C-alpha cells in the first residue's frame, strides 16, 4: 500500500492536505473513498483510520483519500464545509492527472463528526460522481436535544469548567490536534450542554446545518453502522435515518463503545468493514 500526501488548499496560512492510500501496482481501482475523521469537530487527525482497515479497503480495490479540515472553534461550520467542498473539487479536477486514476467515482465516508460532514456534503454538495455515503456512528441533526443538554454519560467524569476548557483554543486555525491534548474541550462542552456553541455562529445555525426529511430522502445509497450502546451519539440517530433514507444498508453492533471499530483486537469492527466492502461492490455493480 502506498501513501502520498497532497495539498488541496490553504486557509489563511494553514495548509489543507490529504493522504492518498492506493495500490501502486494497480491503477484500476473501483472507486475512491473520501474520508473525514471524527473528534466532535474539535480534535482529531485525518490519518486516524487503523492501518488494518486502510489495507483491507485498498486490497479490495478501493483507494482512500483522507482529508484535512480546519477544526472548530478556531473556525465555525460554514468555513469547514467550504474547505471540504474545495477538497471534493480538488479530487474531481486531479483524479486523473495527479492521482493517476482511471475513474472519478467516489464515496464520502466519515466516522462520528466526520459522518455528520458526510451527510451534510452529500445533501448540500451532490456530484454525479458520488455513488454513495458511509456513516459510522454519525448524525445529521444538530437540533437533537442530546447535543444541547448536559450529558449524563460525560457528567460521570470530573467536571471541566468552560473557562478552563476554552484555554485550549488556539489563536489561529488548525487542522489537527490530539485527543489527549483537546478532549477536555469536547468533554466540557458535553457536560455543560454548550458543545454546539463551538460549531455555529448562532443558535439558529443549528437548524441550518441539520438535514430535513426531504434532504435525507434524496441522499445517494448509504451504508450506516452504529453500536447499540453508543454513549456519545444516540443509536436512535442511525435507526431513524434507516427509515428516512430510500436506499440504505444498516449494521447495528451490540454493546460496544461509540467508536466500535477503534479496538482492532475485537472482531466486530473488521466484520463491519468486510460487510462495507461487499456493499461497495454491490453498489458499484448497479451503477
Topology:
Elements: E1 2-11, E2 14-22, E3 31-36, H1 51-59, E4 62-67, H2 77-94, E5 106-111, H3 113-124, E6 130-136, H4 162-166, H5 179-192, H6 205-208, H7 213-217, E7 222-227, H8 236-244, E8 248-253, H9 267-285
Parallel strand pairs: 3-4, 3-5, 5-6, 6-7, 7-8
Antiparallel strand pairs: 1-2, 2-4
Helix pairs in contact: 1-9
Defining traits:
single chain; GDXG_lipolytic_enzyme; globular; hydrolase activity; 8-stranded mixed beta sheet; 9 helices; alpha/beta; 287 residues; Alpha/beta hydrolase fold-3 domain-containing protein; AB_hydrolase_fold
What report would you give on this structure?
33% of the residues lie in helices and 20% in strands. The protein is an alpha/beta fold. The protein has a single domain (2-285), classed as Rossmann fold (3-Layer(aba) Sandwich). The chain has an 8-stranded mixed beta sheet with strand order 1-2-4-3-5-6-7-8, sandwiched between helices. Strand 7 (222-227), helix 8 and strand 8 form a beta-alpha-beta unit. Helix 1 packs parallel to helix 9 (267-285). The longest helix has 19 residues, at 267-285. The chain is globular, with a radius of gyration of 18 Å.
Amino acid at each position: 500500500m502506498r501513501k502520498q500526501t497532497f495539498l488541496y488548499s490553504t486557509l489563511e496560512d494553514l495548509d489543507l492536505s490529504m493522504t492518498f492510500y492506493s495500490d501502486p501496482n494497480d491503477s484500476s481501482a473501483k472507486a475512491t473513498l473520501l474520508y473525514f475523521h471524527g473528534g466532535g469537530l474539535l480534535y482529531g487527525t485525518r490519518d486516524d483510520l487503523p492501518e488494518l482497515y486502510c489495507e483491507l479497503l485498498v486490497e479490495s480495490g478501493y483507494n482512500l483519500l483522507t482529508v484535512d479540515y480546519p477544526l472548530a472553534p478556531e473556525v465555525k461550520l460554514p468555513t469547514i464545509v467550504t474547505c471540504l467542498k474545495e477538497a471534493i473539487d480538488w479530487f474531481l479536477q486531479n483524479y486523473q492527472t495527479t492521482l493517476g486514476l482511471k475513474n472519478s467515482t467516489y464515496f464520502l465516508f466519515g466516522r462520528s463528526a466526520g459522518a455528520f460532514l458526510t451527510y451534510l456534503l452529500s445533501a448540500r454538495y451532490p456530484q454525479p460522481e458520488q455513488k454513495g455515503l458511509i456513516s459510522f456512528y454519525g448524525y445529521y441533526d444538530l437540533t437533537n436535544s442530546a447535543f444541547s443538554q448536559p450529558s449524563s454519560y460525560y457528567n460521570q467524569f470530573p467536571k471541566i469548567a468552560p473557562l478552563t476548557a476554552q484555554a485550549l483554543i488556539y489563536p489561529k486555525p488548525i487542522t489537527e490536534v490530539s485527543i489527549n491534548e483537546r478532549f477536555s474541550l469536547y468533554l466540557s462542552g458535553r457536560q455543560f450542554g454548550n458543545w454546539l456553541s463551538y460549531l455555529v455562529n448562532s443558535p439558529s445555525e443549528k437548524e441550518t446545518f441539520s438535514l430535513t426529511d426531504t434532504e435525507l430522502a434524496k441522499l445517494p445509497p448509504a451504508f450506516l453502522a452504529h453500536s447499540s450502546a453508543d454513549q456519545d451519539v444516540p443509536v436512535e440517530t442511525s435507526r431513524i435515518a434507516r427509515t428516512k433514507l430510500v436506499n440504505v444498508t444498516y449494521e447495528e453492533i451490540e454493546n460496544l463503545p461509540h467508536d466500535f471499530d477503534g479496538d482492532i483486537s475485537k472482531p466486530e469492527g473488521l466484520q463491519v468493514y468486510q460487510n462495507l466492502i461487499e456493499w461497495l461492490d454491490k453498489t458499484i455493480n448497479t451503477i
